[in-house]
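protien #1 (seq + structre)
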Amino acid sequence: MLSKLSVRTTIAALAAIGLLATAPSATAAFRDSAATPAGAPATAEQSPSAGVTVKMPSAVANRLGAGREALIDAVSADVLSRSDAAKGLTAKAAVGKLADEGRKVVVDVRTVSADWARGVAYVEATRAHHGEPEGWLYIAHRKNGQWITGLEGDRAFADHVARSPLVGKAERRTMTAYAQRKATPQQATPSVGTTVANTNGLLLPWMPDYYMTLTGGAHSHTGSTGYWSSLDFAGGNASGRVRSSREGTATSMCGAGGGWTRVIHPGGFSTDYYHMFNTTYYNGTSIARSALLGTIGTDTCAGGAATGAHVHWSLRTYDANLNGQYTWLNGRTIGGWAWWNGSGQYTGCATRSGVTACPGTAIYNRTS
C-alpha cells in the first residue's frame, strides 16, 4: 500500500488556485506550492496529491476545514494504489507519468456529514485512442483524526456503505449486495457455443424492442489490454437515447455535464456508459430500469477518443478479493443476445435464435 503523506498546502494557497470554487463543474489543480518553492527540486516527501485535480463545492470545503487536505491525500494514495496505469510506480512517479501523457488524476468530493465524506475519483484514459478511464466511487471515514478511505469494490468500501449516513436505505441495499458480491461467481471464459446467462437480466443500453447498430464488438474498456468487457453502439430508432441496462443506483462520474455514468445493479454487476452528451446528473441516485442517462455523443470528459457519436458500454463485476474490475462478455447474455469474442478486439459478434449479428448490424434490445 502506498504511504499516505500529509499535504502541506495552506488554506490561502488553496483559495488562490480556486479549490473553493463552486462545484460540481469547477475544478482546480491541487499543488504543494507553499511547501515547494518555484524551481526547487521535488523531494521524496512531497505528497502525491500535489498533481491531483480536485473538484469540491465550496460548502463541502468549508465543512471539511483543514481536514480536506488529508482527505484528498488519502483518496489520491488509494486511487494510485489501485490504478493499472500506476502499477510498479510510486505515487509521485505515477502522477508525473500521467501528467506527461496529458492525463489527470481527479478527486471529486461531493458530500460530507460529520466525519464522513463521499465522492468519485478517476484516472483519465489516454487520448491517443478509443478507451475508457479508470474510476471509483469512494466513501471515507475520519477516525482518530485519520481518514480511512474505501474505494468501490474493496472491503473498506463495503464496511463504510453499511455504516455511513451518506448512503440511503434503498441505495445501501443495492450497493451492499454489489460490494458483498452476491452474484454468480466469475467462471472461466467459456468456449464458443456455451452461453452463461448470469448477468441477472441486463439489457442493452436503450429501450427494449428498439434497435441500435453495433459499431464495435467485444473489446477492452481501455481499447488495448484487459478483459474484453465493452461494446459500442450508435444510430438506430431509439433516437440516440442511452438508458440504464437495469435498475440500480447511478452516479455521474465526471460530474454535471460529463458524459460518463456508472450504474450499480442488484446482484453483483455494474455498467458504465461513456461518450454521452445531454446527460442527466446523478449522484448515488436510485433509478429504474431503462432510466434515461443521456444521448450518444463524442464526449471525452475523462479521456479516451471518439470519432463519431456512440455509446461505449462496459460490464463490471468483482474478482475473488472484492476488487471491482471490468469483466469478460464472451458467452454472456445481454439484451437477449449471447456475445462472443472475435479474432481481434471490436470484431466480435452476437447470436440470438440462430441469427448472428456482427459490427454494422442493427440489433434489437430484447428482454428475453
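ok now protien #2
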Amino acid sequence: MPLPVSPEILVVLGTRPEAIKLFPLIQRLQDHPRLRPVVVTTGQHKELVDYVLETAGCEIAGDLGVGRPGLTLNQLSSSVIAGLDDFVSARYGPPPERISGRVREDHYPAGCIVHGDTSSAAAAAVAAFHLRIPVIHVEAGLRTGTTLSPFPEELNRQLVARIASFHAAPTRANVQNLVREGVDIGRTFVTGNTGIDALRWAAAREVPYGRPELAWLEDDATSPVVTVTAHRRENWGEGIANIARATRRLADAHPDVRFVVPVHPNPRVAQTVRDELDDVPAVTLTAPMEYHTFARLLARSTLVITDSGGIQEEAPALGVPVLVARTTTERTEGVEAGVLELVGTDADTIVASAGRVLTDPAARAAFSRQPNPYGDGHAAERIVAAAEHLVFNSPVPQTSGPGFVRAQVLEWAGFHRTDAVEGPSYVREPAAVDHVPADLEDVVIKPKSTVDPYDEVSE
C-alpha cells in the first residue's frame, strides 16, 4: 500500500549548538537513497551556523533572516513562526485542510525535525503543527524540574514535547521523563545524543587552531589545560562573574596550568568575562571557536568548567572531567554516573572542586570510571533508520532501550488509519502538487526536484 508522503524532511535550526548537533543527522539524510533533508536556518547565529554546516557539507535550503540585535524572546518566536510559514507556503503551497482520505501523491513534507530546547526550536514546532507537518524532536526528554532553570529552555523543551509526534531521546532516563508527562512510550526511541556523533567526527579531523593566541597549543602537549565556558542566561551578571573570579583564583593557585576561555559573543557575557580575566597571564581569552577546533581543545583538556548543556555530554565522551557551573542540570545521568560534578556558581566551591581534580590523580580518574551515558556516536544513524521506518514502513530499527510503535507515532501526527485485508495504512489529504516554488524577500528557496522517483512507495 502506498504511503502518500514526500521523502523531504524539514530540518529547522537557529543556533550554533543546534547546527553542531544536527549536522551528523543532515549528513545521514543527504546520503540516504530515499529521504532528503530541507535545511532551514533562522539566521540567529548566521555566520557561525553557516560555517558549521558548510564545513560538514550540509546544504542550506532557506534562511529566514530573523537574527537581529535586540530581539526579545517573543519577537524571535513570532518571527520564526511567520518566517517558516512563509517558507513552507512558498515551497510547497498551502497545507492540506485535513489529514485524512486516501490519496496517491503528496509532495508535502514528511516531517519537521527540531532540536533541543531553544526558542527557535519551540517556535518551529508550533509553526509545523499549524502547517500539519509532524514534528520529530531530537534530544527529547531532558528535564530539570523547574521551568525557570534554565530559562527559557526548560519550558521550551516541555512545549515541544507536547507537540512532537516522535521523540528521539538520548537516554532511557529521558524516556522516563516523557512517560511521566503523559507521552506514550510507543512514540519514544532511545538513540544516544547526536552531539557525540558530531564530536567524534570533528575531533578526528585534528585541524590547526588557526589563531595567534592559541599558537602555544600547537607545540605544548604537556601543560595541564582547563577549558572554561560560561553563557547561560540564568548566570548572566553575578553568576558569570563568579565563574570568571574562580578562574582567576585557580590561575593564581596553579601556576603550571593554562586556562582557555572562549568568550561568548553576547556583550553582557563578554564584558563581564573580560573585566575579570583580561590581565591574567595564564588565561587565554579567545573568540567563540569553530566547532572542529573546539573539539580538539576539549580532547586536549585536563578539566572543563562550563555551564553549557552540550559540553556536559561531549567532554565525558573524551574522558575529560566536567564541573557544571549551574545549580541544576537536565543531564542527571552524567551526575549519577560520576562523569559530571554539579558545583553551581559559588567561586569557593568551583575553586575547591577544580583544585581536587588538578592535584589528585585519583579524583581525576574517578570521573572516567563509568562509560559516557550519552551515546556511542551512532545516534544520527538510529534516527534516520527510525524516520525511514515511519515513512516507508521499512524494518524496525534495533535499539538497546524501549522501541517505538509506528502506528502510535502516525496516529498522533494526525494520519487517518484505513484498515484493509493486507493491513492498515496511514494516509492524509494531499497538498497541491502543481505549486511552483516562489522566492520571498530575504528568504532563499531552492526548488525541490521536479522528478521524484519516490512519490509512491510501498509499505
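The CA atoms of residues 229 and 306 lie 5 Å apart.
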